[in-house]
Every structure is written in C-alpha cells, then in structure tokens.
Amino acid sequence: MAHSAENSQEGGRAAMHTPPVVSPQAWEAAHQRLLVKEKSNTRARDALAAERRRMPWMAVDKAYAFEGPAGRVDLPGLFDGRRQLIVYRAFFEPGVFGWPEHACRGCSMVADQVAHVAHLNARDTTLVFVSRAPQADIDRLKAHMGWQMPWFTLTDSFDADFGVDEWHGTNVFFRDGDKVFRTYFLNNRGDEQMGGTWNYLDITPLGRQEIWEDSPEGYPQTPTYKWWNWHDSYVPDAPPDKTWVKISDAGEAAFREQSAAAKKV
What's the DSSP call for residue 131? Predict the structure, then answer.
C-alpha cells in the first residue's frame, strides 16, 4: 500500500505520497529490476565515451595568453607538460553576482565538486579554471573557499572563441608537440556532472586509458585499477605497486564471481 509522509515543519507542506513500504524480499526484487536498467545506462555511457574518443579534432592556430601565479603563459603552457587539458570557464569578475567576495554560485558549486587533480595528472591530464579576475583576487578566493585547482586569468578572446563568454562551459584540448587541438566541449547541464575524476577522463580524447575501454588502435591503455594510488604517492612512470596489484586482482575476481552468481538467480 502507498505510504504518506507528513511534513512537520512550521507552516508545513502537503503530505508526500511516497512509494509503498514492502518486505526485504520485495525490496530486493525491485532493486534488481532497476539495476538492469542502471547497468544498461552505464553501458550506454561507455558507448558515448567511446564515440567521443573518435570525434574529429579542430586545430587551434590562434595564440592565446593567460596570467597565472608564475606570470604570463600561452595555451600550450596551460597543459603543464601533459598531453590533455580540460579548461572550465568560471565566472569570477566584476559584474558577476558575488563579486568580489565570491564567484558565481553555480561555478562555485562546480569548483566544490572537483576531486584531487593528482589523479587526473596521473592520466596525462591537466585541469584548469579560467576567469577574468586578476590573480590576486583568484588567490584570495581560492584560499577562502579551500580550492586547489590551477586557476588562470583570461586576457583576450579565448572565452568568446570557445563559446564560454556569456555562460560557463568546459573545453577539452589535446597537445601533440607544439600543436594544440580542440577535441570536445560541454556546457549547461553537461557541466553539472563534472568534478569527479572519471567524468573528467570520460570527456578526454584518451579516456580513462584502461584496457576495458573501446578506444582507437594505438591509444594508451593500462590494466584497470592498477594505476590507482593515494593522491600524495603518484610517481611518474612508476610500475604498479605489487601489493596493490594483488589486492585489486582479488577484489576484481570476487566481483566477477558475485556478478556471475547473481545472473544464475
């Protein structure tokens, strides 16, 4: 039977018509039915990411300049020596609601979601935020809000040229030597899912770089789980830790055994 929940707050709202309360067995059956759809959605997301890795690239021939903590830097410089670059255009500047104490509320929520960038760096990927505020104001804001991501100041038409002059958005670039290519772009509700390491990697041309992914021939791929590390312990080009390989192998085997058993039920 359906269940209603009363709101006991002062000046309360109408009763919520909540789902029925059922037995543990009925709950588990409902969960398994929904899980089938959730797994299908996961596979669809994987397929979209694979298609994204095959999108054509656009050469970026125009020169751009940014101000950073160490001074002026061009677009290739934002990569910080890595091959992939993710640029989020955050609105923190005069004329934006919250200035000068805060950045845009929406952009601030995005910033609050960003995972430790060391995990992206370990996959040859750099994440940066850009705004028109001077570096002194950006430094003050980052300290106040506890944000750690690199954040640069826009100085030219980069935002207008890449569709983020009037609204937030995320652009993805790939560097091949001195050549830079735009590979992907998302904004609006696409940005609300960002912040986690996996979602960021899924919008890059190289993806998560794990062997289960459907990627074009020759793309870098390593065994799943093996490259994971504590964010303060990554060492470039270091082989996977033997103990972690053993632990992750055992965990993966147990997971596959559990999945196989569930399919027989």
Answer: E
